[in-house]
Design goal:
The protein starts with a strand and ends with a strand. With 273 residues, it is an alpha/beta fold. 37% of the residues lie in helices and 16% in strands. The strands form two sheets. Strands 2, 3, 4, 6, 7, 8, 9, 10 and 11 form a nine-stranded mixed sheet that branches. The chain has one domain (15-271): Rossmann fold. The chain contains ten helices and eleven strands. It has helices at 21-28, 36-48, 52-72, 92-99, 112-121, 140-144, 147-152, 172-184, 203-215, 225-229; strands spanning 2-3, 5-6, 78-82, 104-109, 123-124, 129-134, 160-163, 191-197, 236-237, 243-244, 265-271.
Amino acid sequence: MRPAQHEAIPAVDLQTDRAHSARVYDYMLGGKTNFAADRAAGDKIIAQWPGSREAARAARAVMHRMVRRLAQVHGIRQFLDIGTGIPTAPNLHEVAQDVAAECRVVYVDNDPIVLAHARALLTSTPQGRTAYIDGDLRDPQRLLATPALRGVLDLQQPVALTLINIVHFLPDDTVHPLVEQLLDALPSGSLLALTAGTADSAPERAALASRRYREAGIENHLRTRAEVERFFTGLELDEPGVALINHWHPELDDGPMLEDHEVMAYAGLARKP
């Protein structure tokens, strides 16, 4: 196995005595990259929303389905994943490389704690490559110019831009121009895979979750289906269009399908003409 490629990152205090959002999410998914403080925070969420663990797993599962579809149906061999979070097996590159071992993946996150964990957790097949770089969705030009990205991805060939569980942390007037800049830099045949938080399916529960984020100092913007569809303007939407994550190409291996009120996110996949 070839080690993951990454930029030099200074020593980081992992702050294991306090909860970290990425590690809490890892705990909700049943991962192992978490500590007592993270598990305590996760347990508080579960106490308020007993189905939160299943919803987190559903959000992760739709990412796996999107990646498999990108590789199997659309023949994509390059992935740019922004806002990755803590690697939780199976990671995006493992799903893609299970379809085609030569797949190349660049993971992007701007959190030094996430980057520190990733250095030890990410590996690639010998045929493919992975890189995990310090970058920010809010600075697409700097991100696209990063040598590690250019060293792994050929931006003259189609790329899947995956924005999973990230756009709801930015307002419309900020996030839409950013996504457009990234897509403008990718060639025809590239695809956008996106999930976005919504209150459509569970208004009261979504309002509670949104309030908890704001109390923690994290802005969030839940969107209607029509508002999520706006991200795909000018692109060719793959079937079934923008749908709640439990309805986006469900698979038997994911277990029983959750009810609509148990999920709070839409998913969509579209091709750049």
